[in-house]
Amino acid sequence: MANERQPVPVRTMLVAIALVVATYLTLRAIVLLAHIETLLVVAAFFAVVLTPAVDLVRRKLHVSRGLSTAIVFIVGLAVLTGLLYAFIRPLVDEASEFVDNFPTYVSEAREGRGPAGDLVKRYNLDERLRDAQADIENSLGNAGGGALKVAGKVLGGVASTLTILVLSLMMVLYGPDILKSALNILEPTKRQRVRAVASDCARALTGYVMGNLLISLIAGTVTFVALLIFGVPFAAVLALWTAFADLIPLVGATLGAIPTIGVAFLHSTTAGIGMLVFYVIYQQFENHVLQVVIMSKTVQINQLFVLVSVLIGVELLGILGALLAIPAAGVLQVIVRDLWDHRAGKFKDEPTIGADEIPVSEVDGEKTAGPNEDGQNKGGQNEDDTPDRPVAVSE
């Protein structure tokens, strides 16, 4: 009969089962290797951001790629170590001073003298402390286990940081060779397109990161000046906190402002009100002037897309996801735009930057130079040298 079903071939059934099993195993592997995948993504992010600095040092000092990479990483680690030291040292000093003076605080609290005694009398804390004495003793007895957990997390964080550092170093050193080998597999027309898209993504990513760092530096600097004007203690620490927090999209400025304003109010009401007014004015300046001026030639993303990207990033990776969300969204925007343009028959002769698609040559101020009499380009690079990052050039 015409409507009689034909039996499914055994080979087709086996192929379908194999595809289902392979898909399951792949998804399972992705879940199990999530931590390693996170390290690879973060390392690739830093490698792309640091590559322009490595290229610049290589051109200016005329040294090998390995030496220029070492210089950039050593300088970067030195700067980061200095910032962390400047941030942590005052906190450690204050904690040490508190521990040294703790017996005095306890004595004053019991005798009703000093600031601690005033607080105890005002809020009847002596009775509450007696009622909670058993809970406090139990908490102190269990503090050892909590300390071990914290120590384990700290060691895990240090190991992850070292892993990211090594992976980033290897990617900067060997990434261009790997990329060149991967591009050689493609046919010339596709190779040209992939190079252009990769260069677009790298420039958008690097431009956003550099712009964000500049805005954070400005935020920390003006905050430091404002804190000095109002005489707020720990001005350097609070300014560094503001700069670090400002790196986080959308909510970073608020996270940086809340503790700073709180410390200012503890110092004096005038300082607190002054810092509150300062942050309100500065936020308007940052959002409507700095963001527009600094980010205009990098990646421009719709604010709704930014919010969705940050929410997804926070859900996946927490604070780290929030930091990587907008750069990742910028890369995705470049790829989607290329697919759309390719589908519409629009082709670019060279990579562009930003939503306005400004050609790279207009931003750099010069076109790619041709060979001179010595067989070298004007930048000092031989014709046979492979660029350190993907660029859109004719095959």
Automatic annotation (TrEMBL):
An example Gene Ontology CC term for this record: plasma membrane
Keyword Zinc-finger: no
Membrane-topology descriptor: Multi-pass membrane protein
Transmembrane parts of this sequence: 12-33, 39-57, 69-88, 154-174, 213-241, 261-282, 303-326
Pfam families hit by this protein: AI-2E_transport (PF01594)
One of the GO biological process terms: transmembrane transport
Keyword Nucleotidyltransferase part of the UniProt annotation: no
Main location group: membrane
Cell location: Cell membrane
Region (Disordered): 351-395
Keyword terms, alphabetized: Cell membrane, Membrane, Transmembrane, Transmembrane helix, Transport
Family in the record: Belongs to the autoinducer-2 exporter (AI-2E) (TC 2.A.86) family.
Listed name of the protein: AI-2E family transporter
Protein source organism: uncultured Acidimicrobiales bacterium
